[in-house]
Amino acid sequence: MQTTLGCIGCGNMGSAILRGLSGREGLRLVGCDPSGAKLAALADAGVEGVADIAAAVRASDIVLVAVKPGQVGAVLGAAMPELDSGKVVVSIASGVSVGSLREMSGGRCPVVRVMPNTPAMVGAGVFALCFEDATLDEVRRTLVKELFEALGRVLVLPEEKFNAFTAVVGCGPAYVFHFMEAVVEAAVTLGFPRHEATDMVVDLFAGSVKLAATSGTHLSLLREAVCSPAGNTIAAMNQFDRDAVRGRIIDAILAAYRRGQEMER
Fold first, then answer.
1. Distance CA 100, CA 128 (A)
2. Which residues contact 51 (CB under 8 A, 6 or more apart)?
3. What kind and span of H or E run contains 220?
4. I want to staple 60 with a disulfide (CB 3.0 to 4.6 A). Which of 6, 40, 227, 263 is the partner?
5. Quick one: 76 and 181 in the same domain?
6. Binding-site residues for NADP(+), please?
7. Could you list the pLDDT tens digit for every one of the 265 residues in the chain?
8. What is the rounded CA–CA span in Å between residue 29 and residue 46?
9. In this structure, are strands 3-8 and 27-32 parallel, antiparallel, or unpaired?
10. 103 domain residue, yes or no
11. How far is it, in rounded angstroms, from Cα 15 to Cα 41?
């Protein structure tokens, strides 16, 4: 039996999810966005484009809401007449709770809250899924989970953990890119051309992540393995410690967590 997923909002994340699910057997994809160019760009992935929210919802079994948090209410308001108990709303909007989704959709269908991160755009995302709507049955819970597992790693979490997940993993790519930029600037300062410095640093991080993921060795031991006695690496580590870099990173993530709490009030 065919399942139809309709994505409302075909920006970076919505488009990435649609492309990641393209070609999946038994799954029809519908995209809805005011930008005709965004819909046209998804045609090669087999996405049927529509400009009308109600039409997209009417055609869909799973309604993926992939718009900014401030737009969710308007989108679900437009979708509400077409929602019924046979559909499920899946929202990837940060800070919009299950309770709010239920209220905005008029309680007409089950809702699922999802927090993605941007590596989903290359099929390497990490997703938190919240299945705390009591009206969600096991069949649709399994279906939604399997769809996101096709796009990366899935963690099923209680909603109370979502702000923490967002602060660590949802925001996390920005932390990584910020640190990468700093290393690139250091390489340029040391005389490497910018394009060469960027390639070096991207490969440095890719290789380090692969080592961490496959070696089975604790991160501290991997770091210590690079720090030869009286060498240049331990000199850099000592400078990091003098500047409390570790503590400042932790403080920054906790600041993201506190901001998430403020956004949900």
1. 18
2. 32, 33, 34, 36, 39
3. helix 219-226
4. 6
5. no
6. 8-13, 66-69
7. 799 999 999 999 999 999 999 989 999 999 999 999 999 999 999 999 998 999 999 999 999 999 999 999 999 999 999 999 999 999 999 889 999 999 999 999 999 999 999 998 888 999 999 999 999 999 999 999 999 999 999 999 999 999 999 999 999 999 999 999 999 999 999 999 999 999 999 999 999 999 999 999 999 999 999 999 999 999 999 999 999 999 999 999 999 999 998 887 7
8. 7
9. parallel
10. yes
11. 9
**Residue of 104, 92, 120 lying closest to 7 (CA atoms):** 92
What is the residue range of 68's domain?
Answer: 3-159
Amino acid, single-letter form, for residue 36: G
Domain co-membership, 17 together with 109: yes
Based on the domain organization, do 152 and 127 belong to the same domain?
yes
DSSP state of 42: T
Q: Please, are residues 243 and 149 in contact by the beta-carbon 8 Å criterion?
A: no
Say how many residues make up the chain. Answer: 265
Tokens 């992939």 belong to residue: 66
Residue stretches of the annotated binding site? 8-13, 66-69
Residue 52 CB coordination number (10 Å): 10
